[in-house]
Design goal:
RA_dom, alpha+beta, five-stranded antiparallel sheet, Son of sevenless (SoS) protein, Chain S, domain 1, 10 strands, Ubiquitin-like (UB roll), about 40% helix, guanyl-nucleotide exchange factor activity, Son of Sevenless (SoS) protein, Chain S, domain 2
């Protein structure tokens, strides 16, 4: 017999059970078969069967995917998902359950309620009276536990008691004695117990506690920095980024978890993500310090350092390290570096073109479509694709790339983590945690897993890197004393003031200013970041300790929620600081002309909301976004008047929400008492000197001005 088949899918609606709602899809398979060996007997020529004797059969199967449910139902579904043909359910659940449950709660349900044969036979799992059913249940439990240990072993790292791991070990001894699973759990427990407590940020921290005895932080020596070859610096930055990115625990990136990091009790929340941010900031600050740290540098010498960093950024591109690439570009776009007009005039045209190409990777056009497509295209490719480079740069790029290929080692891809944090924060803001009946919205978790899966894919690709640490460079990198924002600005002004304005003719100066204006202020404007993260003011008004935040270009997060970072925009080359001034550490963080954005980097967890649909094209309907009212909903940004006026929080509103509802949500987002609604007024910022005030019971959606930014201020009533 010969066979051919065709598969079609049909929406089967929903099935509702007690405590769960399922999406049903009907899978219809058409099987066409022909008995070729009997063709002659049936009158066919050769081995061909007449069409009337072709047999068509149809087979229909039902695929059930849980849409929402109680925690008990979601855990039970771990055991039945394969039977329902929902093959990705276990991975999705394990990657996202920390948003709505603890490991202990899930483990207790899995083992005590569904894994205990005595109680299971009372109805939780059907047909367990026979030995065969008992064996099936054991196999299902083992399969779930194996996946849990494979994918999320960090869930069991609970020093010093390791309650969950000991509970699991006890269960295995009683129900699966002497099994491979039992041995594995014992080894994992020993591994956790023997490991010393280590700081997650490891070598990338620039604090003095990481230095060898007797060493002190120092401003970079230009000669020492110049002694490192460009590709060596890029390789070492990539080595550090790879080590940290591989350690990132994916669920730490979930919007519901990452957005809670500002609370006092959560100062140690998501340490693996904070570590990548610390490294990102260290690279950005290192770039700024090497350019501005030495007052005695001549203009040409300073320009050479800028050129060197552009070459290093290009080497990072060849290595597919988008994290350090973004950090270097962001530093070069920072206010204190951008304003060095005379220095930029001495940078060669070819290198400026290279810099422009690298900057365009992070263009905010169409929700950063260029960087997203490039990241996914190269996620699993062996080497970088540099075909789009300018001809002159392409020759150099291909030469360097060929050297990499000759080594015969595949490269991984290190992403800019802020892109994923951005998407996950948007999903968390736009989608509800619970649906009607108080059921956990698992459709939201499926959407989140689409982003988590990309992170895991890239983490897996990082295993392809084969980089050897250069202790000389790493020690140099550690020793760098980073300039504060005020120091950077002061040194930048001194460097520009000391420049000999006659080194170039007026004509060439005009041409160069025009070229730089085009470079920085083209169609895709790149807004530079602050050189140093702001101190986040805790509830109560005290300045508190500085929290991690990424000093990166605000273009990734221009229309979203500012959690920790205030961004100062680029002005024109003729007056670089006209529109925004540098704030002091004790200030609110922004002048009136500053643009305070949501998360100019991975630490913020804010979202590119201008066109979020492009990032989530698989969505059945468009998500609510910032600065656009769509289908009766939108996202606004609300800041607190006073000490926290530089910190925005994203709020989802609908056409049913009135002032008290939005005010209460904003207070909760800012970790303030929600009962104090009557003590605050909500106003929309129209311009620097205009505000739109709302009556106490106004409908915010219909009352707001939709032709300006959806930025609001919550202010205490007089």
């Amino acid at each position: 017999f010969s066979f051919s088949w065709q598969t079609t899918f049909q929406d089967g609606g929903e099935e509702v059970e007690d405590g769960a709602v399922y999406n049903v899809t009907l899978k219809k398979v058409q099987i066409q078969q022909a008995a070729n060996k009997g063709a002659r007997w049936l009158g066919g020529e050769g081995d061909q069967l007449p069409p009337e004797h072709t047999v068509r059969q149809y087979e229909t199967s039902k695929i059930r995917a849980i849409k929402a449910g109680t925690l008990e139902k979601l855990v039970e579904n771990l055991l039945t998902a394969f039977g329902d043909a929902d093959f990705s359910y276990i991975s999705i659940f394990l990657a996202t359950y920390r948003a709505f449950a603890s490991p202990r709660a899930v483990l207790e349900l899995l083992l005590d309620r569904f894994g205990n044969l005595e109680t299971s036979s009372q109805g939780e799992v059907a047909n367990l009276n026979s030995l065969e059913s008992e064996m099936v249940l054991r196999a299902e439990i083992a399969s779930v536990l194996r996946a849990w240990l494979d994918q999320c072993s960090e869930d069991f790292r609970e020093p010093p008691d390791y309650i969950c791991l000991l509970k699991l070990l006890d269960y295995l001894k009683n129900n699966m004695p002497n099994s491979d699973m039992e041995s594995r759990v014992q080894n994992l427990l020993k591994q956790f117990q023997n490991q010393e407590v280590e700081a997650v940020d490891g070598f990338c921290s620039t604090s003095s506690s990481d230095l060898v005895d007797g060493e002190e932080l120092e401003i970079s020596n230009p000669e020492e920095f110049s002694s490192f070859q460009d590709h060596v610096v890029a390789e070492q930055l990539t080595y550090m980024d790879v080590m940290l990115f591989r350690r990132v625990v994916p669920y730490h990136c979930l919007g519901s978890i990452w957005s809670q990091r500002d609370k006092k009790e959560n100062k140690n929340l998501a340490p693996t993500v904070r570590a990548t941010i610390t490294q990102f900031n260290a690279v950005t600050k290192c770039v700024i310090s090497t350019i501005l740290g030495t007052r005695e540098l001549k203009i040409q010498q300073r320009a050479k350092i800028i050129e060197k960093w552009i070459h290093i950024a290009h080497e990072c591109r060849i290595l597919k390290n988008f994290s350090s690439l973004r950090a270097i570009i962001s530093a070069l776009q920072s206010n204190s570096i951008y304003r060095l007009k005379t220095t930029w005039m001495c940078v060669s045209k070819d290198i400026l073109l290279m810099y422009e190409e690298l900057s365009e990777i992070f263009s905010d056009h169409d929700n950063y479509l260029t960087s997203r497509e490039l990241l996914m295209k190269e996620a699993t490719s062996k080497f970088a694709n540099l075909d789009s480079s300018e001809k002159e740069n392409q020759k150099k790029s291909q030469k360097r790339l060929q050297l990499q290929k000759n080594k015969g080692v595949m490269q991984g891809t290190v992403p800019y983590l802020g892109t994923f944090l951005t998407d996950l924060i948007m999903l968390d803001t736009a989608l509800q945690d619970y649906v009607e009946g108080g059921l956990i919205n698992f459709e939201k978790r499926r959407r989140e897993f689409e982003v988590i899966a990309q992170i895991k894919l890239l983490q897996s690709s990082c295993n392809s890197y084969c980089l050897i640490p250069d202790q000389k460079f790493i020690q140099w990198f550690r020793r760098q004393r980073h300039l504060t924002e005020e120091e950077s600005y002061k040194l930048s002004r001194e460097a520009e003031a000391a420049a000999d304005t006659n080194i170039l003719s007026p004509k060439s100066q005009k041409s160069m200013v025009k070229r730089i204006s085009t470079l920085f202020l083209g169609t895709d404007v790149f807004t530079p970041p602050k050189e140093q993260p702001l101190k986040s003011s805790p509830v109560g008004g005290s300045s508190g300790e500085s929290t991690d935040s990424a000093s990166v270009s605000s273009c990734e997060f221009n229309h979203s929620e500012t959690e920790d970072v205030c961004v100062t925009p680029v002005s024109s080359p003729e007056d670089p600081l006209k529109k925004g001034s540098i704030s002091s550490d004790k200030g609110s963080g922004c002048s009136k002309g500053s643009v305070c954005d949501a998360g100019s980097g991975p630490d913020s967890g804010s979202m590119p909301c201008r066109d979020s649909g492009s990032a989530l094209s698989s969505a059945p309907r468009a998500l609510p976004v910032y600065n656009r009212q769509s289908e009766g909903s939108c996202i606004i940004r609300v800041s607190m008047d006073g000490l926290q006026d530089s910190i925005y929080k994203s709020i989802l509103i609908t056409n049913q929400d009135r002032i008290p509802d939005v005010t209460q949500r904003a207070l909760l987002k800012h970790n303030l008492e929600p009962d104090a609604v009557e003590d605050y007024e909500l106003v929309q910022v129209i311009s620097e000197d205009k505000e739109l005030a709302f009556p106490r019971d106004a409908n915010v959606f219909y009352g707001m001005n939709s032709h300006v930014n959806f930025d609001f201020i919550l202010r205490k009533r007089a």
